[in-house]
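Now for one record:
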Amino acid sequence: MQRTVVCMYDGLGYDYFEQHPLPVMKSMAEAGMLKRGRAVFPTLTNANNISICCGASPAVHGVTTNSYFDEATGTAQFLEDPETILCPTIFQRYRQAGIGSALLTCKEKTLLLVGGDADVAVAAEAPSVEVIASYGSPPPMYSSEVNYWLWEIAIDLLRTRPDIGLIYVHTTDYPMHMWAPEEPESVDHLTRLDELLGQARECAPDTMFLITADHGMNAKNLCVDLRKTCSANGIDLRFCISPVADRLVKHHRGFGGVSYVYLNAESDRTVVREFLQQIKGVEEILGRDEAATRFDLKADRIGDFVVLADRYTVFGDLDGEKEVLPENYRNHGSMYEDDIPLIISGYQGEVPSSDQFAMNYDLTRWLIDRIEAGKGQSAC
C-alpha cells in the first residue's frame, strides 16, 4: 500500500487556493488531479472531518455537528465521544490491514473522536509530555504558528517512521477566521504552509498526498439569536443550537451559518416556521426529513427544523435578539462555505478521473477502496 498523507486544511476555501501562488500545492495539483469540490453541509469541522476520516457522508457515520442538544438534560453538549461515529474510520481500517497510522491535529476534539486507533496521535491543544520532549511546546492555539508546528511533526514522521503508512494532518482554521485571502497575514500563513508541504514531498517523494478542506470562510455582518427573537414575539422554542459551536470560541464566538431548532410540540410546527421565515438573515427553513435527504444527514441527529442563514448572517446565543458584527468577523457553517479544493498528488497508479470525485470525503472513500480491495469490501 502506497504511503499516504491526507492534508485536511481546516478552512481552506477554494478562494484561498485560487488567489494565492502556492507553487508547491499547485504544481502537485497540475501533475495529479485537481477538482473544485464541495464540503459536507453543515460546513463545520466535525461533520466534514469525520466524513473525510470515514470516506462517507453524515447519513452513514452519524456526525452532523460540533455540539448537540442533550434531550435528557435540556442542554448543549460538545460532541467528542467516538461512540457517536457509526462507521469505521480510516485509522481503524489501516489498523485492520496491519499498517501504521498517525493523526496530527491542532484540535483535541479530533483526537478524542478518531485518535484512538492511530499508532501516533498528537493534538496541539493537549500535547503529551512525550510530544513536548520530542518537538517542544506547541505555539498558542489561536495562532498561525501552531499549524507550522504540526507540519514539522509530519515531516519528521515521514523521515523517521517508515512503519507509518498514513499520516492525517488536520490544521486549525484560526488564520482563515482572522484574515481574508488577500490580507498580508493570510499570504504569510499560506506561503509557509506551502513551503512545509514542499519539504514533506521532498523528504518522501514516493508518498501520495490527498489534499482538501472541511469548509471555506466568509465575512459575516449580523448574528441573530433565533430563540430570543422567537421568545420576544410570544413563540416558545424547546431549544436552538448552533452546530458550529465548540470549545474554541475566541475566533467565532460559537456562532454559525446554520441552526438546529427543536419544537416543544408538533402542533407548533406551522407557527414556528411562519415566524422564522420573517426573520432577517434566514434564507431557508427545512424540516428534519427534508434536510436529511437534501444534505445526506442522519435525521435523528438534527433538529425538527434546520434553519439556513444567508451569505452574511450567523446564528448563536446573544444577550439580545441580534448583534451587528465587527467588519473583520469571518465564519462558516452555511451553504456558502462549501467550495473547496480536491487534490490527488503522487499516486503511483493511473491518476483517477476527476469525475469520480465531488465531495471532500470522496478522496478518502477512494483511498479506503484501495485498502479494502483485497478483502472484497468497500468504503462505508
